[in-house]
Specification:
This protein is an alpha/beta fold. The chain has 2 domains: 3-124 and 308-339, Medium-chain alcohol dehydrogenases, catalytic domain (Quinone Oxidoreductase, Chain A, domain 1, Alpha-Beta Complex), CATH 3.90.180; 128-276, NAD(P)-binding Rossmann-like Domain (Rossmann fold). It is 26% helix and 23% strand. Strand 15 (311-313), helix 9 and strand 16 form a beta-alpha-beta unit. The radius of gyration is 20 Å and the shape is globular. The relative contact order is 0.16. It binds NADP nicotinamide-adenine-dinucleotide phosphate.
Length: 345
């Protein structure tokens, strides 16, 4: 078995180091991908800082990959050696993406269309899953809307408003794009005004300055639409944003959150639902919707209906990732940090 370079966390809450690790073999239904780009996500620095999800150390992290298929396991028919693909990694050393080679089940691999670079493609998987699984998975994983990539469902929610907290976050940008595919209108989002043009290009119709007091959010939404808000997606999910998004909802409304629930107990009513998404197509409960999404994904990307986040490439290959995670933790604006695992300096 030959070896590769991998960025590992040495022990729980420990330091990062680049180490040699064995390249894994793909099993039946799996492919081995040579990673050309991997995107960074908040979960990566959170795992290193707080130690969750991981059962084996040293641990490879990383959940966003793009690269070239170099081996296929038995029974794989949808992709072949040499194909450029994107995929979501997972929280174990075979499938994580902060390394030069990773294994993934072929049903959750999508070919990259020619209009996307590896770096752009690597920004897609985690945020795509977090947006799409929340909106279109059956309960309890999601809020069970009709998936717009399936026949007859495009534009199904025309005339219904949606509120997206944090539209310029990586997740928020994907939520806005799916809201547009589903026909929601108006698509109201909170963000810094400097990101208004970007968010309008993705489908947002109204941008509310996120520095305005959140207590004013329900009134600001009502000034835009008199229709009842039945869907809100809080891509930030701080306690104050969750409470504000909950207040915006009409009876019968559903709030998606991406972090632990923090709506005040005194506010909670059986008339409004709160769903916490686990944004991974790798998770067994999400696999069916994930596979259906991945089958449609090359078309959605080629048409530009789903666009990647804006990319900043980190210097130093895998060794540059820890500094990138510090930068991400300090806060970025409408930007995805991406490393090139083959570029090891
Ligand atoms: N549950 C899951 O499976 C799952 C999956 C993925 C992510 N997450 C979590 O979701 C959160 C977002 O992740 P991400 O990668 O999308 O983050 P990100 O891209 O790093 O978020 C940065 C953006 O957040 C916006 N922002 C920050 N505070 C805000 C606020 N109070 N109101 C509105 N916008 C605000 C900023 O907007 P401006 O620049 O416009 O000011 C900035 O563009 C993280 O906490 C992450 O851990 C959870």
């Amino acid at each position: 078995m030959s070896t590769q370079k991998a960025l590992v966390v040495l022990e729980p809450k420990g330091a990062f180091a680049v180490q040699d690790r064995d390249i894994q073999e793909p099993g039946a239904g799996e492919v081995l991908v040579e990673l050309r780009a991997t995107a960074l996500n908040p979960v990566d620095w959170k795992i290193q800082a707080f130690d969750f999800f991981i059962t084996e150390y040293p641990a490879v992290l990383g959940t966003d990959g793009a690269g070239v298929v170099v081996k296929v396991g038995a029974g794989v028919t949808n992709v072949a050696v040499g194909d450029k693909v994107l995929f979501q990694g997972y929280f174990d050393n075979r499938r994580a993406t902060f390394q030069q080679y990773a294994v993934v089940a072929s049903e959750i691999v999508a070919k990259i269309p020619p209009n996307l670079s590896f770096e752009e493609a690597s920004t897609i998987p985690l945020t795509l899953a977090t947006a799409a699984l929340a909106l279109y998975s059956p309960k309890p994983q999601g809020i069970a809307l009709a998936a717009p990539w399936e026949a007859g469902n495009r534009g199904k929610y025309a005339g219904e408003p949606i509120v997206v907290i944090g539209g310029s976050s990586s997740v928020g940008q994907q939520v806005i794009q799916f809201a547009r595919l589903s026909g929601f209108s108006p698509i109201i989002t909170t963000a810094s005004p400097s990101n208004s043009a970007l968010l309008k290009s993705l489908g947002a119709t109204h941008i509310i300055d996120r520095s305005a007091p959140l207590s004013e959010l329900p009134a600001a939404v009502q000034a835009i639409t008199s229709a009842p808000v039945k869907v809100a997606y809080d891509a930030i999910s701080a306690p104050d944003t969750q409470n504000a998004a909950y207040d915006v909802l009409a009876p019968g409304g559903k709030l998606v959150i991406v972090l632990a629930q923090a709506v005040d107990a005194g506010r909670l009513t059986p008339q409004k639902e709160v769903v916490h998404v686990f944004g991974s197509v790798q998770a067994p409960d999400n696999r069916k919707v994930g596979a259906s999404l991945y089958a449609a994904l090359p078309g959605l990307l080629a048409s530009g209906e789903i666009k990647p986040n804006k990319v900043e490439v980190l210097p130093g290959g895998l060794a540059g990732i820890p500094a990138g995670l510090e930068k991400l933790r300090a806060g970025v604006s409408a930007l995805k940090l991406v490393a090139r695992p083959q570029e090891n300096l």
